[in-house]
C-alpha cells in the first residue's frame, strides 16, 4: 500500500509546537547569581534571558537578551543546562530553555549594567539560598543545578528543573 506523503510545508504544520528560551548565569566574586526583577506579570525575579526569536540560535538569543536587558554585550560561555518545561494549564506550550555560563562579572562590569527601560526594575546578586526564596521553584532548581555544574565541565539535562535521569550534578555527589 503506497504512503501518501505531505509536502514539507503541510507536514511541518502538523508538528507539535514548542517555544524556546535562553538565559545566562552570571556570578560575582562570591559565587552569587545575578537575578533581575521584572515589571511584567507578578513582578517576579528571573535570570537574564528570554524567548528566542524566529530562527535564532539559543546562544545568539542569550547574547541578545543580555544586551537588551542589561546593556552588556558579552559572548556567553558554555552550555550549563537544557531544561524542558511541560505545557502549562494557561495554554503555554512546552518550553525548552538553554542556560549558558556568563562567568564572573567584575566590579567594573557590574557598575556598567543598565536595566532595560520598562522591562526590569532592579538587579541583585543572590546566594543559592536566596535564589531558592526569590525565584519560582522550577527556576530556583534550574539555577541550583547550573551552580553545581559550572565547575564540573558537565552539562545538565533537566525536566522542570530536575534531572530526570538521577545523574548527580554536584561535584560532591559525582
Topology of this protein?
Elements: H1 8-14, E1 18-27, E2 33-38, E3 45-46, E4 49-51, H2 58-70, E5 79-85, E6 94-104, H3 107-111, E7 120-126, H4 128-134, H5 137-149, E8 156-159
Parallel strand pairs: 1-6, 5-8
Antiparallel strand pairs: 1-4, 2-3, 2-7, 5-6
Helix pairs in contact: 4-5
Describe this structure in words.
- By secondary structure, the protein is α/β, with parallel strands linked by helices.
- The longest helix is centred in the middle third of the chain and has 13 residues, at about 60-70.
- The strands form 2 sheets. A 5-stranded mixed sheet has the order 4-1-6-5-8, with helices on both faces. Strands 3-2-7 form a 3-stranded antiparallel sheet.
- It has 5 helices and 8 strands, in the order H-E-E-E-E-H-E-E-H-E-H-H-E.
- The model has no long low-confidence stretch (mean pLDDT about 90).
- Helix 4 runs antiparallel to helix 5 (about 135-150).
- It has one domain (about 20-160): Nucleoside Triphosphate Pyrophosphohydrolase (Alpha-Beta Complex).
- A hairpin with an 8-residue loop joins strand 5 and strand 6.
Amino acid at each position: 500500500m503506497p504512503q501518501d506523503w505531505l509536502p514539507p510545508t503541510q507536514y511541518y504544520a502538523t508538528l507539535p509546537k514548542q517555544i524556546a528560551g535562553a538565559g545566562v548565569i552570571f556570578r560575582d566574586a562570591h559565587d552569587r547569581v545575578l537575578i533581575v526583577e521584572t515589571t511584567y506579570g507578578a513582578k517576579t525575579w528571573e535570570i537574564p534571558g528570554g524567548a528566542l526569536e524566529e530562527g535564532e540560535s539559543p546562544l545568539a538569543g542569550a547574547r541578545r537578551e543580555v544586551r537588551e536587558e542589561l546593556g552588556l554585550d558579552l559572548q556567553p560561555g558554555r552550555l550549563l543546562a537544557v531544561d524542558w518545561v511541560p505545557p502549562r494549564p494557561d495554554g503555554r506550550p512546552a518550553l525548552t530553555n538553554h542556560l549558558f555560563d556568563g562567568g564572573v562579572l567584575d566590579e567594573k562590569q557590574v557598575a556598567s549594567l543598565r536595566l532595560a527601560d520598562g522591562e526590569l526594575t532592579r538587579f541583585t546578586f543572590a546566594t543559592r539560598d536566596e535564589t531558592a526564596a526569590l525565584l519560582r521553584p522550577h527556576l530556583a532548581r534550574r539555577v541550583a543545578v547550573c551552580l553545581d555544574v559550572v565547575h564540573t565541565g558537565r552539562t545538565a539535562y533537566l525536566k522542570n528543573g530536575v534531572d530526570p535521569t538521577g545523574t548527580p550534578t554536584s561535584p560532591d555527589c559525582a
